Amino acid sequence: MRLHVGCAMWTLKSWQGRFLPHPLPVGERLRAYATWCNAVEGNTTFYATPARSTVESWARQTGPDFRLVVKLPRTITHEGRLTGVEEELRSFLEAIEPLGPRAHALWVQLPGSFAPTDLGTLAGFLRGLPRSYRYAVEVRHRAFFEDERSGRFLERVLAGVGAEWVPFDTVTLFQSPPTSDAERDAWTKKPRVPRRSVALTDRPIVRYLGRDATERTIEGWRQWIDTVTEWLREGRSPTVFIHTPDNADAPMLARRFHDDVRARLPEVEPLPEPMPAEPLTLF
Question: What is the pLDDT of residues 17-70, one digit of tens each?
Fold first, then answer.
C-alpha cells in the first residue's frame, strides 16, 4: 500500500543546505528531492515545453515508481483554450515521452474563465488525447463547485475518458486574513473555491494549500487525513501535494502528512530516508 506525497517544485533556494545538499548541480536536485518525497508537481512545463534532454535528466534522477503530475503548457490550456493546439500538444507529448511510467498524469489546469458552457470543448479535447496517459483536470470556475448540475456534467465528461478531477483546496488559506507577505500574495492569486473531496478514479490527486504557520497547515489538513486514509482502504492510490504560501517547509510538511496517514494505516509503505543536507564527515 503506497501513498505518494510531494510539493509544488523540487528545488527552492531556501531548501538548499536545509533539505537539499548545497551546493548541488541542477542535474542532481530532483534526485535529492526524491529522497524526501515520492511525487512532485510538474509546474514548469506550464510556462514552456521542456527540451527532451531535460526530461531525460528528470527520468535518470528518479525511479519508475516516482510520480510526476505534468502540467500542459499554457499555450494549450489558457491561450488556445484547448482549440487548434494540435502542434503544441504533439511537441509536448514528444518532449515528455522519456518519463515513461513517471508521468503519473497529464494535468489540464484550466483558467478561471473556463466555464460550464465550455465543457463541450473540454470533452472533445480529452477524447482526442492518446490513451497511453492518464489525465487530470483542474477547474477554477466557481459554478463547477456551487452549481450541482454543472459539477455533475463535468464529472460525466471526465468519467467518459477515465480522467480525474483535481481539487485545489485553498479553504485554510482563506479562513482568516493573511499574516505574511507570502500569504498576502497568495490571497491575490489563488482560487477561492469550496473544498471538494470526491475521487472519480482509483488514483485521486489532491492539491492542498495551508498557511505559513506550520500548526495552521496541519490543523487544516485533518479532513484530508480522513479522506486519504479511506481512499487507501478502498484500494485507491492517492497522490497529495502540500503547499504553503512560501513553501519554505513544504518537504517536511509533505512527510508529516505521510506520517499522519501511516499512523492510521501502518501498512502504508514508508518514504525513503532523506539525503543528508550537509556533507558527511569522518569526525
Answer: 999 998 899 899 999 999 999 999 999 999 999 999 999 999 999 999 999 999
Gap between the Cα atoms of 12 and 16, Å rounded: 7
CATH number of 38-165: 3.20.20.410
- Domain boundaries in the chain? 1-12+167-272, 38-165
Whether the per-residue pLDDT at 255 is higher than 90: the answer is yes
Tally of CB atoms within 10 A around 54: 16
DSSP helix/strand/coil, 69: strand
3-state class (DSSP) for residue 42: strand
Rounded CA separation 3/237 (Å):
6
SS3 68: strand
8-42 b/e with 16+ CB inside 10 Å = b?
Answer: bbbbbeebbeebbbeebeeeebbbbbbbbbbbbbb
Interatomic CA distance for residues 109 and 127, integer angstroms = 17
